[in-house]
Structures are given as C-alpha cells and as structure tokens.
Amino acid sequence: MIFHQKPATYVSHVHLLVENVEQSLSFYEDILGFAVLEKKGGEAVLTLDGNKPILTLEQPEGVKPRQKRTTGLYHFALLVPSRKELAKTVQHLINVQYPLQGASDHLVSEALYLADPDGHGIEIYRDRDASEWPWNGEQIMMATEALDVRGLLEEAVGESFKGLSKDTMMGHIHLHVANIEKSQEFYGALGFQPVSRYGSQALFVSTENYHHHIGLNTWNGEGAPAPELNTVGMKHYTMVFADEAARSEAITRLESHGFKAGGYRAVDPAGNVIELAVSE
C-alpha cells in the first residue's frame, strides 16, 4: 500500500461522535469485526490489527442528533487488501442481511457503501493495481458503474468471513464542504494535488498520484454551515505526514495562505477538524 506510507501524506484515523456508543460498538464489532483497543467511559478506540487505532467512537455528554445539510463527513473509506477480501465482505453482509446503500465499480477500485447505526457513511473498497488506473494527463479517470457482484462473489466461494482483514486501513475520506475553491486552496497548502474534478461540486485530491486521499463536495449546499458542537458526526480525522519537516512545512504553508493551525491541529474552511500527525 505505497499510497498509505511515507513519503505520501494520507488519512489514517477517523473520530466519530455517536448517539449510543454501545449500539455503535455492537455494529463495528459484530458486523465488521473491529476490536476494542481501549475503552474509557463513553469513548472506545477500535482496531483491526490489534495494534493500530483506525476508528474512535465517542458518546459525548449532551449529544445532539445528526444535523442535515451541514458540512462534515460524507463517508470514510476502509481499504481492504484484495478482491477476495472484498468478496468475503459482500457475502457476509448478504448472509447477515445488513443493508447496502450501493455497490460500484469506479475503474480504479471496486466499492461497497453502507452506513452505521448513526448514519455515518462507510465505503469498503479494494484498489485495482495502479498500473490499471486510467489517466488523462494529470487527471485520473473515475466513474460510477455497476459492480460485477456475481463475479465478485465467485471469489468468496469456500471462504469464510472472520471480520475485515487485519491489513485493512483507512483508505480515504470524503467530506462535505462549503466551497470547493476555498477547500482546494486549503488542502493544496497541505500538499494535496487535484486529480479529478466533477463540475463545480466535487473535487478529489491526493499525494503521490493516488486516485484520491480526500474527496470534497458541496452536495449539502454551497455555503453549508458547520454542525453544532456535540452533534452526531465526525469530530476530527487524522492526517499523517512523512516526517516532522513535512508537517512543519505544511503548517507554514497553511499560515502563509491565511489559515490557522495550532497545536498540530488545523480546521479547514468548512469547519472540518484535522489532527496533523507524523509517520512512525
């Protein structure tokens, strides 16, 4: 997974606010196979490999229901290591009758879409080999075509699902934002390059020529407001830089563009909070 290690800058972890942490844990443990790495009060840190945190669930005091038409999380995307692992996941979700919201072939990847009990969007996908990705100059060609579910399920014959693979990682994140151009300026200052644009409403950016580490859209409305504090949704996500120098340079660029970053935390123009980390 060369796009999720140094020298790339990538997303590694998402922190969610939930209405009922026990209900959420039941879903992530029983349906997807996460394990609790650490639990304290209304907060649980989840892992798939028994070591690396990938998702945090938090039930804050006075939690408020999800607000509509705001900025924030559209979905987080879990990248499985192979087509067989994706096939096992599809078969498992069929077996337990957990509803899917979609299943697509994006040319660069094959993906499933679902939501957790709080409505947080989840993509589970596998990448095609990067040598197969279609490019038009500096723009990657992605599409939303019907997934070959029958062909995919053939890979699951004789296999059993015992939870998402321990090699699954946070592949990318897709965010609702208030303005595409301002968001492009912000994420550009962090070192991300635009690799695909869909009109004036969606932009995909990455480092090291990945098909996208971050998706940005205004589908909740141009100028959409940020959600209120303690509202069900994303609290923050973690962005990992190759080293301390890369992080420091990114912070300097942010500040030179008039954006604020303090305590290794930044807030994008839409109010999405980012923890700025360094690769171990």
UniProtKB/TrEMBL annotation:
<dbReference type="Pfam" id="PF00903">
    <property type="entry name" value="Glyoxalase"/>
</dbReference>
<feature type="domain" description="VOC">
    <location>
        <begin position="169"/>
        <end position="279"/>
    </location>
</feature>
<protein>
    <submittedName>
        <fullName>VOC family protein</fullName>
    </submittedName>
</protein>
<dbReference type="InterPro" id="IPR018146">
    <property type="entry name" value="Glyoxalase_1_CS"/>
</dbReference>
<dbReference type="InterPro" id="IPR029068">
    <property type="entry name" value="Glyas_Bleomycin-R_OHBP_Dase"/>
</dbReference>
<dbReference type="InterPro" id="IPR004360">
    <property type="entry name" value="Glyas_Fos-R_dOase_dom"/>
</dbReference>
<feature type="domain" description="VOC">
    <location>
        <begin position="10"/>
        <end position="127"/>
    </location>
</feature>
<keyword id="KW-0479">Metal-binding</keyword>
<dbReference type="InterPro" id="IPR037523">
    <property type="entry name" value="VOC_core"/>
</dbReference>
